[in-house]
Every structure is written in structure tokens, then in C-alpha cells.
Design a protein that fits this description.
The protein is mainly alpha-helical. The protein has five helices and no strands. The protein has helices at residues 2-23, 28-52, 55-67, 69-85, 94-104. The longest helix is centred in the middle third of the chain and has 25 residues, at 28-52. The termini are far apart.
Length: 116
Amino acid sequence: MADDLEAIRRKRLEEMQRQQAAQQDNNPQAAYQQEQAQAEREAKIHAVLRQVTTPDARERLTRLKMSRKELAEQVESQIVGLAQSGRLQSTIDDEKMKSLLTRMQPKKHDPKITRL
């Protein structure tokens, strides 16, 4: 699991470096500062997640991030917000993570056929 996180970090760093190279023509200093701020935000998020989630829950979140990045980021934001506001009473294990993900997934709309 630690290898998965490291691979994701490496991949994100490479992506940020590509973006920075593309933006260097415009304003290299601003692009560098923006990338540093983004990396710092991500590091803070991962630090909070390590404190309030179990390894199984983090692994589930990592797998989700590979397939549904937006949903995973929403879940991360919600967990970090709860932790920072002090409303999180216990660590989030895999079962709680499943429950949270189920509640956060968009509701599927069942199409109904009606006759006119």
C-alpha cells in the first residue's frame, strides 16, 4: 500500500513537472509557486488522512482515486474537514469508508417508461 501511495505521488509529481514545463514560457516563477502550493496542500491532506483513517480505508480511497478521481477528492475533502473541525470521533476504518462512499455516490435515476 505504501508503494501504491508512492507511485501515485511520483505520477502526480511527473504530471506537475509537465504542466510546469508547459507554463514556463508564460511565467516560470508564478507556475513554480503554484505547483509548490498544490504539493503542500496535497501533503497536508495525506498527513491528515494518515492520522484519521486505517490502512485499509486509505487503500480503498487510493483505488477509488484511480477510477473516480473527483469522488475520491470529495471524500478526502469531507474527511479532512471533519477532522479539522473536531467532529470526527474515531478513526475511519474500511467499513466506515464503504458507508461514506455509498452515501456520497450520486443516486442512480431509474428511467421509467410512461405512455402518452
